[in-house]
Amino acid sequence: MSTTTGASARVASPHRTYSRWASLAVLCAGTLMTILDGNIVTVAMPAIQSDLGFSGPGLAWVVNAYLIPFGGLLLLAGRLGDLVGRKRMFAAGLAVFTAASVLCGVATGQGVLVAARAVQGVGGAMASAVVLGMLVALFPEPREQARAIAVFSAVGAAGGALGTFLGGALTQVLGWHWIFLINLPIGVAALIAAVRVVAPEDGAGLGRGADYPGAALVTGALMLTVYVIVGAGDRGPTATLLSAVLAAALFVAFALRQARAARPLLRLRLFRSRLVTGANAVQILMIGTMYGFQFIGALYLQRVLGYSELATGTAFLPAPVAIGVLMLGLSARTIGRFGAYRVLLAGLVLITAGMALLSRAPADGSYLPDVLPPLLLLAAGFAAAMPALTGLAMSGAREEDAGAASGLFNTTQVVGGSLGLAALSTLAARRTEGLLRRGAGLLPATADGYRLAFMVATGFALAALVLAAGVLRRRT
């Protein structure tokens, strides 16, 4: 486990215990707002397109404009949080995100909405990058830390599925503007609570590690990587390859810079930790699986089973309920009894089984026999795996690197989600198009494309299981 300061390691008084758990509630509220926003938009996309006149390719930038700065700035924001203080970075991120949400909600043109979404991504990165570092500092004792991570993970996981439901409900009842305006009261309340409840924290100071050349290199590399992933289907193979090569070159230049810099942005010693490196690699595969399932699963319900937007969101509700109950009721206790490694493997087995079962979903399927059982398996698997994986990733980082490790973990989450979403949606679309050219009907061709995506996602989950089994086991 990472080292802690004397103040955080002392046994807390009853007042201090209340303050820590109240601080956790604030961190969860801020995280929930950013996670909801990332998912709530997808259901409202047709309404946004109709109202603002977006073209098909242009509409994708309502999502991409958020993902690119969010994924690109997480690592830099995590390190700056170590330097200026994580509470300051978190509060500033909430303020930027909330203000940008209002701009999104009142947008009457395409350019304003896309620009405001980019600012939202900046604020989301600032707030999200430091949360795990704050959490492990608040809860240094292993059992309490496991409980805190379980609560945090439950909020994050449930928020993803809940966003689909809220997006459909708000869009259908009030209009798409309210999927952004709803962030105003949440953001203001979270910001006030953060200022009053979260304990002040002094950073190391900007003069002790603000490697701006390294920051420029890694931010450019990460933004370009996310851009390559989310826009791969809109460009030719030559442009995509050149962008990928440039991103790789920037990563190499960043690594060389960090090896020689007196005060590096990201200490390369983090990657010497088998737990940090392995957990982040496993997360890319696991989150790619889950994001792909959420996106393709929603399309399967709408385009194959004929569900409305609100009905689709309602169909996903058992997932956040199951995740919340299992994470809050069992996750910390099972990790404490069996260890994070065993719980992670069990969760990945359930995720693999759920995806394998979902890959059989037929064109004439129905919700109860074909969707609900794999949905519950995936929810149970994620409820077990995510807190265990988070604990393993953060346990390999020192206290002074907690912000950077938190930013790294959030970065691989965004990269994994973007990669899974881009890969699986592209495979499904190409499979469907190929079958249509050969004379297949629209419904069976669409269902077959989604089945292929589910099969590939099963491969992602199985690869995550094999990697975790081989890399994350603690050696004595």
How is the secondary structure organized here?
Layout: H1 6-9, H2 14-52, H3 56-59, H4 61-84, H5 86-106, H6 110-129, H7 131-138, H8 142-173, H9 178-181, H10 183-197, H11 212-230, H12 237-260, H13 274-304, H14 309-316, H15 318-338, H16 340-358, H17 367-370, H18 372-395, H19 402-437, H20 442-471
Short account of what is shown:
With 476 residues, the chain is an all-alpha fold. The chain has helices at 6-9, 14-52, 56-59, 61-84, 86-106, 110-129, 131-138, 142-173, 178-181, 183-197, 212-230, 237-260, 274-304, 309-316, 318-338, 340-358, 367-370, 372-395, 402-437, 442-471. The protein is globular, with a radius of gyration of 21 Å.
Task: Tell me what the structure shows.
It comes from Streptomyces lannensis. Residues 23-476 form the Major facilitator superfamily (MFS) profile domain. The structure is a single chain. The protein is mostly helical and 476 residues long. The protein folds into three domains: 9-145 and 164-210, Up-down Bundle (Growth Hormone, Chain: A); 211-264, no CATH class; 267-476, Growth Hormone, Chain: A (Up-down Bundle), CATH 1.20.1250. Helix content is 81%, strand content 0%. It is built from 20 helices and no strands. It has helices spanning 6-9, 14-52, 56-59, 61-84, 86-106, 110-129, 131-138, 142-173, 178-181, 183-197, 212-230, 237-260, 274-304, 309-316, 318-338, 340-358, 367-370, 372-395, 402-437, 442-471. Helix 4 runs antiparallel to helix 19 (402-437). It is globular, with a radius of gyration of 21 Å. The chain starts with 5 loop residues before the first helix and ends in a 5-residue tail after the last helix.
